[in-house]
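Sodium-dependent transporter: structure tokens wanted.
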Amino acid sequence: MTTSQQPRVQWQGRWSFLLAATGSAVGLGNIWKFPYITGEFGGGAFVLVYLMCIFAVGVPVMMTEISLGRRGRGSPVDAVRRVVNESGRGSMWSLVGWMAMICGFMILSFYVVVAGWSFAYVWKMLTGGISGTGVDDMVAVFTANNQNPLNLGFWSTLVTVATMFIVGKGVQKGIERSVSWMMPGLVLMLLLLIIYGLFSGGFIETVRFLFAFDAGSLSSAGMLAALGHAFFTLSLASGAILTYGSYLPKSASIGRTAIGVAIADTIVALMAGLAIFPAIFANGMDPGEGPGLIFMSLPLAFQSMPFGTLFGLLFFIMLSMAALTSSISMIEATLSWLCDNKGLSRPQAAWSAGIVLWLVSTLAMLSFNIGADWTLLGKNFFDWLDYLTSRLLMPLGGLGMVVLAGFVLKNETFRDELSLPPSLYAVWLFMVRYVSPLGIVVIFINALGLYQVTITADWPWLLGILVVMVVAGEALSPRIGRASAAR
Ligand code: TRP
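Answer:
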């Protein structure tokens, strides 16, 4: 329980929250993960489902989360519990908060390893670049960097310490300033890479790969991956955005912020795709290479570009900064919980969370060397952390959030927080109550192999289910208010 009754810290400037939320959203997910899973799941159709997930599920969930945070003014656990109590519902629902907080911690445990790769590449570029010019050379550099646990552990430890140092200092300082120059810088570097790709071959294939829709190419595993990635890239269902929302002043517009963040995040991801794949196609690499994809392909592009080492250096610096503005958001939920419930100061909370994080992330780091064969059902520890969070915890957590918002809590809560014009509010309610849950459930059913959904063949009865849900939902919800009568 919170004992102190001091008002919660709030974001200072008008743009702080937008910057911080964008900083959280734009990260390794956009530049490292999006290209490599797009490669794994075959391109265009995956990208389309991903975009649908961002705007039909991601944006409404983000609005829900920010509202829950601002209403409950606390860590995910506390905020959800307060909001649920306010509506007179059982505290079982705070499980949604717990799940989110734990999920954020799990993600960070493998995120610092990937961020460590980026830091290591900054160092490589600083100390004379990478030798060799072929694909095999790049693969060898990446593999060598992973092979020694002391080397790889050094970099992930560095990221852990840097993250804890920043969050220990406080909420706003640092985040705001670093995001405001880093984002434009990152976009500029991506533009440069895209222009380079235009002239060095592979660009046409890239555009075809990313944007040509081939309905047959998407597996149900791919659909689940697209949904999971939509949550991941927007930092949803893992406490980050909810906790940032808890520092949001009452006057800020939640809807506009959520859409702004989603658009910025999508632009960066698509730009990253356009920047990265030309080098892959021009050099005959396999787009399905896996997690090492950008660390093998991009150095190849830098290698053959004038001033390549300099540009490479700048690129990996930006990437590392983008990773840090994301990693600090992932631990913020835990920190806020420790401070509010365990009476720790921010630095104390940062160091205690940091030690646990370091232990778990070290295990994840070992998956790339001595622990490569510590596997369970064919996945090592790193893969499990990624799999459990993206394919299970985040979609389920998101489902919990929308059910909470759509059916459990009183309508006033969100009408107040979102303060949208009535028609837009009705759209939001319609999305969280019907579209997002149906989308999440269908993708799950698909992924469990219970039924193979193909949109082209199954849309009539999917639409039918939606209609039944709407009719039933509207008829059964006099207590919580009808979406159609939302005002
Ligand atoms: N969205 C970030 C990215 O794309 C990652 C991230 C930050 C995140 N905070 C999160 C993912 C919280 C899940 C949950 O790199």
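The first helix runs from residue 16 to 25. Residues 24-25, 27-30, 104, 107, 232-233, 235, 238, 240, 326, 329-330 surround tryptophan (CB under 6 Å).

Cheers.
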